[in-house]
Every structure is written in C-alpha cells, then in structure tokens.
Design brief:
The complex is a heterodimer of chains A (524) and B (234). By secondary structure, chain A is an alpha+beta fold. Chain A is built from 13 helices and seven strands. In chain A, the strands form two sheets. In chain A, strands 2-4-5-7-6 form a five-stranded mixed beta sheet, with helices on one face. Chain A has a two-stranded antiparallel ribbon with strand order 1-3. In chain A, a hairpin with a 2-residue loop joins strand 4 and strand 5. In chain A, helix 9 packs parallel to helix 10 and helix 10 runs antiparallel to helix 13. Chain A is rod-shaped, with a radius of gyration of 65 Å. In chain A, 27% of the residues are buried. Chain B is mainly beta. In chain B, 9% of the residues lie in helices and 44% in strands. Chain B contains two helices and 18 strands. Chain B starts with a helix and ends with a strand. Classes of the chains: A alpha+beta (524), B mainly beta (234).
C-alpha cells in the first residue's frame, strides 16, 4: 500500500481505472513496446539508407577525383609524348599523343556525365580548352609528319603550353571542388553515424524504461486488487461479513471486487438471519427444557403420591388373602389374586415412571459401592428361573472366572440385567435365554441372548426410547410399559457405559451393556 | 513526292515526243540496272567499339556489305570498262565530301574522276587521323580535329582504302575513276549510266567485300537498257 503513495501510484491507479479488460491492457502494453521496436527498425533502416546514399555520393566524388587525376595524367603524357616526338624528330610517338588526347576526351566525357550540376560549367570550360588543345595537337602532329619541326615547336610553345596550363588550372579547380565535396560528405557521414548511435542508444534506453515501467505499472494494477481481495477474504473467512472491497480497477478485477462485496453482504444477511433463528430456537429450547423438567417433577411427585394408596391396596389385599380377616370365600379368592397381580403390575409401572422421572429430572443418584458380579447374576437367575420353567425355556447364566469385586451401584445394575433378561424371557416362546458376563480391559460386558422374535432393523434405533415397543400389538400380547429399556439405558449411561443390541428378525436378539469395573457413579 | 515525280516523268516523255531534247542527249542510250548478291548473304557481325564510346557508341553496324531486302547491293561502283569515243555527254562533279560522323566514314564509298578532289570532314568532337597508303597516288596521314576540313586531290585512277589510326573499325573507300562513265548504287542496289551511244559495252562492278565482276551489255538508242549484275558471294 506504500506503493500507492509513491510517484508510481498515480500511473498504477490510472491503469487500474482504465475501463478495459486485463487482456486488452496486456495486449496494449506489448503493442506499445512492439511499436517502439518497429519505430526503431524504421529509423535504423532510414539511417542505413541515408548512410548508403552518402557513402555512394562519396564514392562517386572519389571516382570523379580519380578521373580528374586521369585527365591530368593524360595531359602530362601528351606533353611527354610531344616532347619525345620533337626530341626524336620522328613521327612514331604521334599516335601515342593522339591516343592520350582521345583518352582525355573519354575521361572528360565520363566526368561530365557523372558531375553534379554545379561543376558542369567548369567542365564545359575544360571542354572548350580541350577543343583548342585538339587543334594544336593536330597541328603539331601534322607538322611533325611533314618534318616541319620548327613550326611544331612554335605551336607547342605559343599555343599548346598555354592551353594545357589553362586546362591544368581548370582541372585543379575541379579536383579542389570535388575534394571539398568529399570532405563535406565525410563530415555528413560522420554526423549521420553519430546521430544514429545516439538514436540507437536512446531507443535502447527508452525500450528498457518503457518495458520496466509498463510491466511494473500493469502488473501492480493487477496485484493490488488481488492483495485487497486476499485481505477481504481473510476477513470473510474469519466471519467478519458485510465489508466493502474497494479497488480502483474497472476491469475484471473491479467486477470481481463488486461480486465479492455483494457476496460478503449476502453472507452478513444470512448470518444475521441465522443468529436470530438460533436465538429463537435457544429460547424455545429453554422453555422446552423447563417444561420437560416440570413434567418429570410432576411425574415423580405423582408417582410417589400414587404409591401410597396403592401400597395400602396391596397391603390389605395381601392381608385378606392371608386370611387375617377370616376365611376368604373360594369365589372371591380369584378376583382378589387378580387385584393383587394388577396392583403389583401397577406398582411396577409407577416405579418405572418414577425412576425415569428422576433420571430425567436429574434427581437419580447412584448408590455406589462394592458389588459382586456373580451375586447380581445369581439374583437375576433366581428371580426369573420360575418364569423360564413356566414357559419351558432353557435359562442359563455364565460368569467369566476371575472377575474381581466391582465398584458401582449393584442394585441398579441388577435392575438393568433383570430388565434385559425379563424382556428376553417375555419375548421368547421357544428355545433359550443365556446370560453371559465377561471382563476385558477393566470393562464389564453383560450379555443377554435369546431366541425370540427379534427386532426389525428400522426399529433398532428407537428401541431404547421411552414408551417404545416394536409394535403396539406387542404391547397387547406381551404387556409391559415400554419403559424398561429406556431406564436401563439411562442407568448404564449413569455408570459411564453404553448399551446396544444385535438382532435378527425371527431368530432372536442379543442385548448387551458395558460398564467400567470401577464406575465413578454420581449423576452424569 | 509521288505526284511530283509522276509530273516530271510526264514532262520528259512530252519533251521526247515533241523532239525538244538537248544536243547532249542526242546520244541517248542508257543503262539502268541493279547490282544484286548471288548466293546466301554472309553472316555479318557487329563491330565492338572499345574506345571513345561517348562519341562512337557501343558498337557499329558492319557496312562492308549492305543489302536491300530484295538483295540489292548498296555502294557498289559500276563503270564501263572502255568509255565510248568522243567527249562525255556530261562531266560529273570533280569534288565531293566524305564526313566522319560518330566514328564512321559517311558516305563509306565516294567516287571521283581522276584529278578530282575530296573534302574530308570531321563532325566528331575528338581527333580522327586520316591514313591511307595508295599505290598510285601519294599517301596521306593527317590528324584532324573537329571542324577542320582536309582536302586531298586524287590524280590517278585507283581504288583507295582510307582508315583512321585512332579507331580501328573505321573504313572508307575512295574510287578514282578513269572516265566519267561510272555510277554508285543506291540503297536498293540500283544504278543508271546515261549518255551512252548505242553499242556493245563491257560493264564492270566493284564492291569492297565482293570484288570485281564484268558483264557484256548491248545498249540501244531508245529506252534505257535494263541489266542485272549478279555478284557472287565469297
């Protein structure tokens, strides 16, 4: 963020604010650099062309200087051959003079064709002088051939030498002019070279700077919103919804930032709604708990109140059946036994309800102390043996040897095992019921296996809920409050253990519960 | 031009018919003929120009044998082996010119009667050098700048070759005739000899490449006698 306060912050923001896609921005950046390179290439080519042109001009001027030298040479050779002719007094070297003269003409013609316009006048002057020179050369040649040497000498002195000097002077001016031109071209060429070097260096520096600045600005215009989004998302992840993500970008990043802001606000709204709902639910839950506790207390009190008159009924019934009030007529004994049986049943129901209520109200406390597993099993066996015999069922118990004295509420655990075994006997018509106790890793496992009707799979989960039996028809056939399993579960859990069942419909069930060998006891 | 020549011809015919002829034309025989090449035309190569190209050009047409499309030989010289007795009907001009233009003699062949004069010109802006070594006439070797005229008189009948020392391809021919009965063929190879008394003549023809041939011709006194001189290629 310190970057945005630096001088580069302004261009970064400016690039971010450009209303164009990231793609276009990147392409534009590359295009800019490419254009610079194209411009550099064009300028280089132009410079090369200019250099080539100037070099060519220089070469041409050089060539013209060469020709001018040839002209001077031809002139000197003519003089030389003329002297030779006169000295030897023969006409043999005359053809050499003529040849040199024609060479002079030929070279001059080339020079005239190649010469720049400003030198034409000079060349015309040379040509005029050469016309005179040709006439004198012809005169000398013919005079020599005619053996008129004195005349030839006169022509040489009076006419040829002055005209040759004139030509020499003119050619000298021409050479000087050409050399001036050459010097100018050389200077121009050197200047072009220097300029091209400067241009190249300038382009190189400009390319590097443009690439660096362009790359920096464009990349930061993308990095900044990403960083802002990162911080924003961290807030969202931390549960701080409803913020606004502000980025200068008007490209895809800008659109993304708007969406993220919208998302955050939407999350805020949902979060608020959820909080309200949760608060409402909590209130309801509290009220429900209160209601449940009130119900349990009511039931506990009610059960207690119900037991008092029922105990009186059962007590008097028993006294009557014991014939303390006199002999009971035979026709009354059966209804009295029914009263006693149903009264006991009712008492058991009330006790169950009382237990459950206590548990739910949190008022049931375990009376922990030492107990003997063997003893519990024997008590249960003794209590139910007659029922088993009555139903013609095999009923066996087995306690693993070497189980030490355990710690817990022996009375309640007896109740648990009695419940399970009673249920097993109740729901089994044929076969057997087996009780098995084992110890593993300081955990006691009580098992009651039967060959009864079994429990359908979809009912297994509900089997431990209050007032639940598999089928209402079962209640009618087998009786029972449906509270036994529920109480057993609560008691086992109070011991810190757990209860479970494995069952196969029609083949039988195995109920088991585990408790620690040394249970802490007390309300969980 | 055609109508003009037609008119002239009509005038001549009218003059002949009315007898209004000049005394010189009294001996009115004439030969009107063509010199042609017999046989295949030899292959002619262009001449390369090695120096002074700025005036002379890069190459030159070979002019030692120039033919018309019909095979007529140009610049052949035709003459009577023996002239007729008596003075000639008309004396040909005793002076003519031969120019040097773009490093070529123009015309290439000139004919003058013995004692005739030739003015050699130079139209080129460079030096030419006339050079000739005839056998009968005196030799000459003259350097010539532009614009200067060199006049040479030829006394003896002869066929003379003229060259330029400075330009090897340059060739010119001066034919010095013994008598005025000669003619030079034009571009079509045509020639005409006039003022001949009727009779029997030996006609001779020379061309620089093809050499000399001769042919017997009988000339009447009325219409020009047509003749074709065939020069075999060699």
């Amino acid at each position: 963020m310190a970057l945005l306060n630096s001088p580069l912050g302004a261009p970064v923001r400016a690039v971010a604010k450009i209303r164009a896609s990231v793609h276009v921005k990147l392409l534009a950046g590359f295009l800019l650099i490419t254009l610079l390179f194209i411009a550099m290439t064009a300028v280089s080519l132009r410079t090369f062309a200019e250099t080539a042109r100037e070099t060519n001009l220089l070469d041409q001027a050089h060539e013209r200087v060469g020709w001018s030298r040839q002209i001077e040479h031809a002139l000197a050779m003519q003089m030389h051959f003329t002297s030779m002719t006169l000295l030897s007094q023969g006409s043999d070297p005359v053809s050499l003079i003529l040849r040199e003269n024609n060479r002079f003409n030929d070279t001059l013609a080339r020079l005239e064709t190649a010469a720049p316009a400003e030198e034409r006048a000079l060349i015309q002057a040379i040509r005029g002088a050469q016309d005179d020179a040709m006439a004198t050369v012809a005169d000398i040649a013919n005079a020599v051939r005619d053996k008129r040497l004195a005349e030839a000498m006169t022509v040489l002195r009076t006419r040829q030498e002055p005209v040759y000097q004139k030509i020499e002077t003119l050619v000298g001016s021409l050479v000087a002019a050409e050399e001036t031109r050459m010097a100018k071209f050389r200077a121009s060429l050197a200047a072009t070279h220097r300029q091209s070097m400067r241009l190249m260096a300038g382009f190189a520096v400009a390319s590097v700077v443009l690439a660096l600045v362009g790359g920096f600005v464009i990349s930061w215009s993308f990095i900044l919103p990403v960083r802002a989004a990162h911080g924003f998302l961290s807030d969202v992840a931390a549960g701080r919804f409803g913020g606004t993500l502000v980025v200068p970008n008007r490209d895809e990043f800008g659109a993304l930032a708007e969406h993220m802001t919208w998302m955050s606000r939407e999350l805020r709204r949902l979060d608020d709604e959820q909080r309200v709902a949760a608060a409402t639910l909590r209130g309801l839950n509290d009220r429900l708990a209160l209601a449940s506790r009130a119900k349990s207390e009511f039931l506990a009190n009610m059960s207690h109140e119900l037991r008092t008159p029922l105990n009186a009924i059962l007590g008097f019934t028993e006294i009557i059946l014991d014939e303390l009030y006199g002999e009971v007529p035979a026709n009354l004994r059966e209804p009295l036994v029914d009263i006693q049986t149903n009264g006991r049943h009712l008492l058991r129901l009330i006790n169950d309800v009382l237990d459950l209520s206590k548990i739910e109200a949190g008022r049931l406390e375990l009376g922990v102390g030492e107990y003997s597993v063997q003893e519990i099993v024997e008590v249960v066996h003794a209590s139910l043996r007659s029922l088993a015999i009555e139903k013609g069922l095999a009923f066996s118990v087995r306690v693993a040897p070497g189980i030490p004295t355990a710690w817990g509420d022996g009375r309640r655990l007896t109740q648990c095992l009695l419940n399970l075994a009673g249920n097993a006997l109740k729901f089994t018509r044929h076969g057997r019921v087996d009780i098995d106790v084992s110890l593993a890793d300081d955990w006691l496992t009580f098992r009651v296996a039967d060959t009864g009707i079994g429990i359908p799979k979809d009912e297994v989960e509900n089997i431990f809920a209050e007032f639940r039996q598999v089928d209402t028809t079962i209640t009618r056939e087998y009786g029972g409050t449906g509270l036994g399993l529920s109480i057993t579960k609560r008691l086992v859990e109070l011991h810190g253990g757990r209860i479970g069942v494995e069952s196969e419909l029609g083949r039988g069930s195995t109920f088991f519960f585990t408790v620690p060998l040394h249970a802490d006891g007390g309300p969980a | 031009m055609t109508s003009l020549s037609t008119m002239l011809r009509a005038l001549v015919i009218l003059a002949l018919a009315t007898g209004l002829t000049t005394p010189g034309d009294a001996a009115g025989g004439a030969i009107k003929g063509t010199v042609t090449l017999k046989g295949a035309s030899p292959e002619l190569k262009k001449l390369a120009v090695t120096i002074d190209q700025y005036v002379c050009g890069k190459e030159k047409n070979p002019e030692d044998l120039v033919l018309s499309p019909q095979g007529g030989v140009r610049s052949a010289v035709v003459w009577l082996d023996k002239p007729p007795a008596g003075p000639p009907a008309a004396a040909p001009p005793s002076a003519t010119t031969m120019d040097q233009k773009e490093c070529v003699f123009a015309p290439r062949v000139v004919v003058v009667p013995a004692g005739g004069r030739i003015d050699f010109l130079n139209s080129d802006r460079l030096l030419h050098n006339l050079h000739s070594t005839p056998s009968a006439n005196p030799p000459f070797n003259r350097t010539q700048p532009k614009g200067r005229t060199i006049t040479i008189t030829f006394e003896k009948p002869e066929i003379i070759r003229v060259t330029c020392d400075l330009h090897s391809w340059m060739r010119g021919w001066v034919v010095v005739a013994e008598h005025p009965y000669y003619a030079l063929t034009d571009g079509a190879g045509d020639f005409e000899l006039r003022g001949l008394p009727p009779g029997r003549y030996t006609l001779k023809a020379w061309q620089e490449r093809l050499g000399t041939i001769s042919k017997e011709v009988v000339v009447g006194d009325q219409d020009p006698t047509p003749v074709t001189l065939e020069m075999p290629a060699r």
